[in-house]
């Protein structure tokens, strides 16, 4: 039995083709910035503030980027959301390979407290920014030292970057 080293995830060639076709079919020519939404009925305190993300999408659009939303899997077919005034790639909610292909094809990817962030962190081709909420009860007492202890419990050194993540620099 040979020992192998896990080097991360990559999207399949076919998924990358599907994403290129999706981009072409929508005539997207600007750099894509994906926004992954968490809108789950469980533990709603961890959900996105969707109205703020829609404001951000407007700013992106005005600044020559193309925002693309990936809705939460539990609500991927609910089209009454304000995000639908922009591109929404619903199929990525249901297909991990397709989702990863979109992340690889995007200029930048935004995440807020969602489990699928892990596939971005474990793919060197995915530039991303991951927001983690600091909920009042977690850090009201203890300041920065409490934050450092909390992160250390999850194997994260305060101020460090995840293994596999690229260092992002603006153009």
Q: What does this molecule look like?
A:
- The protein contains six helices and five strands.
- Strands 3-2-1-4-5 form a five-stranded parallel sheet, with helices on both faces.
- It starts with 12 loop residues before the first helix and ends in an 18-residue tail after the last helix.
Characteristic terms for this protein:
12% strand; 171 residues; alpha/beta; globular; 5 strands; five-stranded parallel sheet; disordered C terminus; single chain
Q: What topology does this entry show?
A:
Blueprint: H1 13-25, E1 32-36, H2 50-62, E2 66-70, E3 87-88, H3 96-105, E4 108-112, H4 117-121, E5 128-131, H5 136-139, H6 143-153
Parallel strand pairs: 1-2, 1-4, 2-3, 4-5
Helix pairs in contact: 1-3
State the secondary-structure class. alpha/beta
Q: Beta-strand percentage?
A: 5-15%
> Could you tell me how far the N terminus lies from the C terminus, measured between alpha carbons in angstroms?
45 Å
Q: Could you state the order of secondary-structure elements as H and E?
A: HEHEEHEHEHH
Number of strands: 5
Low-confidence region ranges: 167-171
Helix content range of the residues, please?
A: 25-40%
Biggest sheet architecture: 5 strands, parallel
Query: What is the CA-atom radius of gyration, in angstroms?
Result: 17 Å
In spatial order, strands of the major sheet run 3-2-1-4-5
Count of runs of 4 or more consecutive helical residues: 6
What do the pLDDT scores average to? Answer: 81
Shape type: globular
In short:
This protein is of the alpha/beta class and 171 residues long.
